[in-house]
Design a protein that fits this description.
It is built from four helices and eight strands; from the N terminus they run H-E-E-E-E-H-E-E-E-E-H-H. It has helices spanning 2-8, 56-68, 120-124, 132-145, and strands at 13-20, 27-33, 43-44, 47-49, 72-78, 87-89, 93-102, 112-118. The radius of gyration is 14 Å and the shape is globular.
Length: 146
């Protein structure tokens, strides 16, 4: 369903709420943006644009490989309350988000200044891009349902 609806939306993007259960509490990977300058240093969930004729799931795997140099295993979507489950983000785009587990260690690339594993409490203290705040909350809510 996400694939069909993403094809109809304006400027769709994908992101992964990459989680880790190896610590005492669940953690999510936060990525600090390197650019553009007005967003530099602010945190986001890693991901990117869906290419023409690309399915969102395929775009998610590709974008994470390009941005973080790792393979992920998507778990389940993090859905918004909208009909298509997408989240409204910057520049009038919609973002489709999945919880995912890293199969390899994520490494920062030119797209990010740093990567940081954060608990729910630590996430509250980061300077997130405003549209990512409810997404991160929803992702943690799903993780705590496990």
């Amino acid at each position: 369903m996400i694939d069909r609806l993403a094809a109809m939306s304006k400027k769709p993007v994908v992101a992964a709420a990459i989680f880790d259960f190896s610590a005492d509490e669940p953690r999510i990977l936060a990525a600090s943006r390197a650019y553009p300058e007005d967003l530099r240093g602010r945190f986001e969930l890693p991901g990117g644009k869906i290419e023409p004729d690309e399915q969102p799931y395929e775009a998610l795997l590709r974008e994470i490989r390009e941005e973080l140099g790792c393979t992920i295993q998507p778990d389940r979507p993090v859905l918004s309350d909208s009909e298509d489950g997408a989240w409204p983000i910057l520049d009038d785009r919609k973002m489709y988000v999945w919880l995912a587990e890293a199969i390899e260690t994520p490494e920062p690339s030119k797209d990010h200044l740093e990567l940081r594993w954060v608990t729910r409490r630590e996430a509250r203290n980061l300077d997130w891009l405003k549209p990512d705040i409810p997404i991160v909350k929803a992702a943690f809510d799903l993780l705590y349902q496990n």
